[in-house]
Design goal:
Elements lengths: L1 H4 L7 H19 L11 H8 L3 H13 L3 E4 L3 E4 L20 H10 L21 H5 L1 H4 L15 H13 L9 E4 L1 H13 L5 E6 L3 H9 L3 E8 L2 E2 L1 H8 L6 E4 L13 H14 L2 E5 L13 H5 L4 E6 L11 E4 L2 H15 L4 H12 L2 H26 L13 E5 L6 H10 L5 E2 L13 E5 L6 H10 L3 H7 L5
Parallel strand pairs: 4-5, 4-7, 7-8, 8-9
Antiparallel strand pairs: 1-2, 3-10, 5-6, 9-10, 11-13, 12-13
Helix pairs in contact: 2-4, 3-4, 9-10, 9-14, 11-12
């Protein structure tokens, strides 16, 4: 814990008080003065005790929540968390001779030897005077001051431990050694495909589902078979029927805030899917991009399976920034090790600087505050979108979870492709349902709508004409149908 807290840079007096409070509470937890499960003083009372403002005290508590030391219970207060990050396992010894490519690559990143004639890059001391520290800031480089190496092959350890703690809060037993950092979720999916699938193998996917995945699978010459997606998850009847003739090695799915439909997995469907995976011997890859916005108690396949057959993929792209390219995969230790080796051979490492930046945002409580604002914006935009679309004749049910998407079905007989062209002529970008079907076969016309843009006046004006009965549109001679 001392190493994590030691990364905070010197700041103004208010920030320094926050750091001092965080250190003091963390010390009390580490020494046993505060017991697991014990309730702390309220923000108001603690502020009086420490002679600071309520805002300063609230920020200190938020940082301790972000560091996995405290748990915030709405309406009740702050409590000492019962669990803490698992200590990293000691590094495995590497062979003295560079006979194995993976061992050589790993040693260049993880650095267990003092004398390093086998290194493939200049020493950090030769890079003194570069401007990278000034550009990134002290907060990024404070933990260990490693400015020019690749970083660990698995990714920045404090961030991996914090992710493992968040998974534990979601009911997924995991430690930092099972977490592998990636260049976003797509990189994680690519590593999984490289290990579990070969050309000619069959993979099941949601239909409609995450369309970039379909192209990635076809690039690997994998047969892609769609499983009909229902509001509560994959259609188990469709899955069972296709398992009678297909032998998939992997089923890729999104359980919560599904892209593109916004649907959420039910417990009944989750249990049914896992039973079939066990019976037929395939892995399930669960992509959970909105996890940090959702309830930890939401039903997740990885929580029910405990990373036995389920491989769990997460990312900060949807909640923080897609440009940061920070994601991760959590898996059974044996599988995690295999994926780490593939990562070494294909891209060597992910960005240590960027992972430090993300960890710094988490450790300071800034990410938690950002999530609160983002969640509020999504909820308000969703309610507004449902109301606005309903007012022009579209019945849309608000998603159960706090995601970005609504699935907007068009009137029967609508020509989806023609509507996309008409919208484009008016400067409106639509995402048609055909793109999200792995077979690209035509079906009922529908569009994925991002709630952030759903209430734009030009979109509503365009859709209002589509909501009118087909015979009225034809009679009006719009030529839209």
């Amino acid at each position: 814990m001392g190493e994590m807290l030691g990364q905070f840079p010197l700041e103004d007096k208010s920030r320094s008080r926050v750091v001092a409070l965080v250190r003091e509470v963390a010390r009390q937890i580490a020494t046993g003065a505060l017991k697991p499960g014990e309730k702390l003083a309220s923000v108001r009372k603690a502020a009086l005790q420490h002679h600071v403002s309520k805002n300063t005290m609230a920020e200190a508590y938020d940082r301790l929540v972000a560091l996995g030391q405290l748990e915030a219970r709405p309406g009740s207060g702050y409590y000492v968390l019962a669990s803490s990050p698992s200590p990293a396992a000691p590094p495995r010894p590497h062979v003295a001779e560079a006979l194995d490519l993976v061992s050589l690559l790993r040693e260049q990143l993880d650095q267990h030897h003092e004398v390093r004639p086998g290194d493939g890059r200049p020493p950090p001391s030769w890079m003194e005077g570069s401007q990278i520290g000034a550009q990134f800031g002290r907060a990024v480089l404070a933990h260990g001051q490693v400015e020019h190496g690749y970083g660990s092959s698995r990714g920045f350890l404090p961030l991996r431990e914090r992710i493992a703690l968040s998974l534990t809060e979601r009911g997924i037993r995991c430690d930092g050694n099972q977490v592998l950092m990636t260049h976003g979720a797509n990189h994680a999916l690519d590593l999984i495909m490289r290990h579990l699938l070969e050309p000619g193998d069959t993979a099941f996917v949601d239909s409609p589902g995450y369309y970039p995945l379909f192209g990635k699978l076809r690039l690997g010459k994998v047969r892609v078979v769609g499983i009909r997606r229902l509001p509560d998850g994959p259609d188990l009847a469709d899955l069972e029927a296709k398992l009678a003739t297909e032998r998939p090695k992997v089923f890729f799915t999104q359980s919560l805030a599904h892209n593109p439909t916004g649907g959420t997995l039910s417990l009944t469907t989750a249990y049914g899917l896992l039973r079939m995976a066990e019976r037929h011997g395939f892995h399930v890859v669960e992509d959970d991009p909105f996890a940090d916005l959702l309830s930890p108690s939401s039903p997740r396949l990885a929580g029910l399976d405990q990373l036995n057959r389920v491989v769990y993929v997460g990312t900060f792209s949807k909640t923080l920034s897609a440009s940061l390219r920070v994601g991760f995969v959590a898996a059974h230790p044996t599988l995690s090790e295999a994926l780490a080796n593939i990562k070494l051979l294909t891209c060597v490492a992910t960005s240590d600087h960027v992972e430090r930046l993300v960890y710094g945002l988490i450790a300071k409580g800034q990410y938690l505050r950002h999530l609160r604002r983002l969640r509020s914006r999504i909820e308000l935009a969703t309610l507004q979108a449902v109301a606005d679309l309903g007012a022009i004749g579209f019945r849309v049910v608000a998603p159960h979870d706090c995601g970005f998407y609504l699935w907007l079905e068009m009137p029967p007989g609508s020509d989806e492709e023609a509507l996309c062209r008409l919208a484009a002529e008016r400067g409106i970008f639509l995402a048609p349902s055909a793109v999200f079907r792995p077979d690209r076969q035509p079906g009922p016309a529908a569009f994925r709508i991002n709630v952030a843009h759903a209430s734009h006046p030009r979109l509503l004006e365009f859709l209002s004409r589509l909501a009118r009965p087909i015979h009225q549109l034809r009679a009006a001679g719009t030529g839209w149908v």
